[in-house]
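Re: the multi-chain job from yesterday

Posting the exact lines I submitted so nobody has to dig through the queue logs.
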Amino acid sequence: MIYTITFNPSLDYVIQVDHFKPGIINKTKFEEILPGGKGINVSIVLSNLGHESTALGFMAGFTGEEIEHRLESYGAKTDFIHVKKGLSRINVKMKSDEETEINGMGPDIQPEDIQELFNQLDDLTEKDILVISGSIPSTLPDTMYEQIMERVQKKKIKVVVDATNNLLLKVLKYKPFLIKPNNHELGEIFNVELNTRDEVIPYAKKLQEMGAQNVLISMAGQGAVLVSDNNEVIQSKAPKGEVVNSVGAGDSMVAGFLAGYLETNDYSKAFINGLCCGSASAFQVGLATKEDVENIKKTLSEN
Ligand SMILES: Nc1ncnc2c1ncn2[C@@H]1O[C@H](COP(=O)(O)OP(=O)(O)OP(=O)(O)O)[C@@H](O)[C@H]1O
Ligand SMILES: O=P(O)(O)OC[C@@]1(O)O[C@H](CO)[C@@H](O)[C@@H]1O
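And the result, structure tokens for all chains:
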């Protein structure tokens, strides 16, 4: 079973506003509410691609119930911990002349809730895969990622981590199976600006030297680079298309890579699946389906 953890799930309120101006009333031209949070997006795309997963994490209030309900409608299993105080957040994703995001705070998670998550993780076995992604709400210690990695280490399960900066750096010593920073996050870690696929390769290799087994760097419209544990460097430009909503493109890439890897055991095929899955999500309001990914794969060879 693939388990995803979302520490701070959300309802993503995706809106379009013509020429947004602060300080006045703006009206939406388009609006959609989607279940969100990085692990949840991974679970949705895995379901769309025909892979079972169980979404773990913390939920609260009516927004939490709605997220859970919507996620289950995609066929994903859920085993969320229901937190008593506060509400699961609503994250606003506004498309206008620029893209603006306002992400909420989330509920008040107590030590006993964290303990419940640890108890769930104690039941995982060697055959399971764990995806940990997204930010840590302020009510959780910033050592959450490390604590989880330490706890599951002896089980030898494959762990995928999609987190930024310090959260990511601190888990490398536990040798995660896959990490997926984007080029800006990779650049921030090493205090450099990385704009081309060739530029990211040496820095991706550094993260591998620091412990990650496979390093997948997403680069939005520039494509992606994979430095794999069999010393291969695989890279590709992105499929061509019109971006409609890039929220969740990175999560879709993680899901596509995992699905491809489980189906073929081949890193090149997993990479292409991840790449096309990311783009398929970027080219629509919602997240990629299997059919979208197959269609985009065909266009990639024509590019
Ligand atoms: N403008 C685009 N054109 C084509 N493909 C794109 C575009 N933006 C994203 N993608 C696809 O999605 C993948 C992941 O995108 P990106 O690098 O933006 O991830 P991310 O920064 O983790 O995104 P997010 O945090 O919004 O999920 C890219 O590698 C690419 O395959
Ligand atoms: O605060 P986090 O967890 O880092 O990011 C949350 C979030 O912006 O990421 C997802 C896209 O990747 C969205 O569905 C969600 O709103």
